[in-house]
Specification:
alpha/beta; Rossmann fold; 5-stranded parallel sheet; 4-stranded parallel sheet; globular
């Protein structure tokens, strides 16, 4: 089965809804795109003549820039709109903004929004494909794709591999998307951190919840660190950042609890000296910058697959 046959969706909204075959289709195409990154001529003609609009209504650096680069590598025209540069500040609704973007002949919409469910809402409203670039504390599907793509590069088949996600799980869309992706790929997932940020209720997703950091790190093949999501918290979930670091920050002493070949990951932005010490973030076992690079090719794959499905659906029926 080819990548295009495995992928029949107009939109990418959640990892939860994807099958393992759909994940594999994205990874296969991303791997092919990665081979083009070393070429002197990196542009491909795949989406020439298409216009992609990035509607980023929350702050972003890596995700926004990666989508822009991915679109341009596929030869698409790109327009990026931020919250302060949109008519939303004048009182326009998200619905009207999206419909206007579609009426301006955009071919695909990438959206980041603070409201969970907003990409799903727009996907049902618009004819053009919608890609979720992060919706509140719900999901961040392309981050999970690049994370698991990186893990596969480093660890091979993820069946039975042990991945520990450490930090603010409660408010993390990255954690939720990664849990779905890793479980679908056969990995064993452990969540670790303070009990206020890693409640036992997450065990319903088929993961292990631990509040003892040494136990959580002991047999991990990879550890994924998450920053504290202050912007989504409405109450104090631990005494201070210093308190969090003293108990759960990854430093040289605690890194010794890891297996020698375990890798260190972080979706960014990194709060150095809080969730991870700088020497570990910059060490040979860190794949943080490789994750950033892989974010380009995974997003190239998603853009092309969604655009291709839309093109097929718009072909006239000649039967």
């Amino acid at each position: 089965m080819t990548d295009h046959q495995a992928w029949t969706r107009k939109d990418l909204i959640t990892i939860e809804d994807l099958s393992r075959e759909e994940l594999e289709a994205i990874f296969s195409m991303a791997a092919a795109f990665k081979e083009t990154l070393t070429r002197s001529q990196k542009k491909l003609p795949s989406l020439r003549g298409k216009t992609i609009v990035n509607l980023f209504l929350e702050p972003s650096t890596r995700t926004r820039v990666a989508f822009e680069i991915a679109s341009k590598r596929l030869s698409a025209d790109v327009v990026t709109i931020t919250s302060q540069a949109s008519s939303l500040v004048k009182g326009e609704t998200l619905r009207d903004t999206a419909l206007n973007i579609q009426s301006l002949n955009a071919d695909l919409l990438v959206i980041r929004h603070s409201a969970p469910g907003s990409p799903l809402y727009l996907s049902r409203l618009l004819r053009i494909p919608v890609i979720n670039a992060g919706d509140g504390a719900h999901e961040h599907p392309t981050q999970a794709l690049l994370d698991t793509f990186t893990l596969r590069e480093k660890l091979g088949n993820l069946q039975g591999k042990k991945v520990t996600i450490l930090g603010d799980i409660l408010f993390s869309r990255v954690a939720r998307s990664n849990i779905w992706a890793l479980r679908k790929l056969g990995a064993d997932v452990t969540l670790a951190g303070p009990a206020t940020l890693v409640p036992k209720t997450f065990e319903s997703l088929g993961v292990t919840v631990l509040h003892d950091l040494k136990s959580a790190l002991a047999d991990a093949d990879a550890i994924m660190l998450l920053r504290i999501q202050h912007e989504r918290q409405s109450a104090i979930h631990f005494p201070s950042l210093g308190e969090y670091t003293s108990m759960f920050g990854l430093n040289k002493r605690r890194a010794a609890w890891l297996k020698p070949d375990a890798i260190i990951m972080h979706p960014g932005p990194i709060n150095r000296g809080v969730e991870i010490d700088s020497d570990l973030a910059d060490s040979d076992r860190s794949v943080i910058l490789e994750q950033v690079t892989n974010g380009i090719v995974c997003r190239m794959a998603v853009l092309l697959l969604c655009a291709s499905t839309q093109a097929i659906s718009q072909q006239p029926d000649t039967a």
